[in-house]
Amino acid sequence: MTIKQALSWAKQQLQDSCERPQYEAELLLAYHLQKERTYLISHDNEHIDIKEYEILVKRRQNHEPYEYIVGEASFYDIHLAVEEGVLIPRPETEILIDLVAEIIEKENIRNIAEIGVGSGAISVVLARKFPNLHSIATDICDAPLRVAGKNIASFGLERQIELRKSNILDEVSEAVGLVVSNPPYIAEDFLLASNVVDYEPKEALFGGSVGDELLKQIILDVKEKGTKYLACEMGYDQKEPLEAFVKDVGVKYIKFYQDLAGLDRGFVIEFEGQR
Ligand SMILES: C[S@@+](CC[C@H](N)C(=O)[O-])C[C@H]1O[C@@H](n2cnc3c(N)ncnc32)[C@H](O)[C@@H]1O
């Protein structure tokens, strides 16, 4: 079969499972051939063996995320290894990183902690931005800790990021200037697309029956720890309940931020009189 015929077959197969079947057919073929996408256009009459390509296309047809198929996700200015059991980093989390970077710079913060490291997306990008920053990054699951370790090593950041298996910050006794987290915050009965709910880890998605339970516990734990700043991602409908919750907890301020679609997506808290 030629490249052109293979792409036309794959586009047909992906019609019902992908928003952009032609584009995804090309991405998967470029990955299969280990070539750039432009190669496909300039060599469209080349004959290829498509046995392995057929398997990749079938996986995508079954809604498996492209990132798990190729074992890699593009995030911020880097590519990170990902696999089933580890959340695929999302573009909205880049906004959280930029807000945290502003605080780190302004306050000259040297030590931070991250709750729920996943692939390492947040800690790796921050460590690359700030070569003097040290981060203790926790996760309760083994797969994220293993994959984050791989990503940390591939960027040579072992001296800057320390991984710990921990519930929230239970195993982090050190003082830090800021805690960042993109925790699971979806309600358990929320209907998610098949590519998310059938493939991505439940521990990374669901924050409890309401969804904001873990976020609230993180707020309490970080205040208790005596840390000055907390920056978290959250669900689009969690601003009101969290605003009410922090009134009782007592904070200097909570500022909410929106994502590129204009939806509430997270917050920064400064706690009163803390380090
Ligand atoms: C939404 S993912 C975020 C991953 C990564 N930080 C990112 O932004 O792509 C949440 C992560 O938190 C971890 N997690 C869930 N509950 C936790 C807890 N109680 N303590 C620490 N980590 C937890 C999950 O295993 C998952 O890796």
Automatic annotation (TrEMBL):
| Alphabetic keyword roster | Methyltransferase, S-adenosyl-L-methionine, Transferase
| Xref: InterPro entries | DNA_methylase_N6_adenine_CS (IPR002052), HemK-like (IPR004556), N5-glutamine_MTase (IPR050320), PrmC_N (IPR040758), RF_methyltr_PrmC (IPR019874), SAM-dependent_MTases_sf (IPR029063), Small_mtfrase_dom (IPR007848)
- Please spell out the taxonomic lineage of the organism that makes this protein: Bacteria, Pseudomonadati, Campylobacterota, Epsilonproteobacteria, Campylobacterales
GO:BP terms for this protein?
methylation
Q: Which CDD domains match?
A: AdoMet_MTases (cd02440)
Top-level taxonomic group: Bacteria
Q: Which organism is it from?
A: uncultured Sulfurovum sp
Q: What class of enzyme is it?
A: transferase
Q: Which reaction does it catalyse?
A: L-glutaminyl-[peptide chain release factor] + S-adenosyl-L-methionine = N(5)-methyl-L-glutaminyl-[peptide chain release factor] + S-adenosyl-L-homocysteine + H(+)
Question: EC number(s) per UniProt?
Answer: 2.1.1.297
- Every copy of the Release factor glutamine methyltransferase N-terminal domain together lies at 5-71
Keyword check for Protein biosynthesis, yes or no. Answer: no
Please list the residue ranges annotated as the Methyltransferase small domain. 99-187
| Protein name per its UniProtKB record | peptide chain release factor N(5)-glutamine methyltransferase
Q: What molecular function does GO assign, one term?
A: nucleic acid binding
Q: Does the keyword S-adenosyl-L-methionine apply?
A: yes
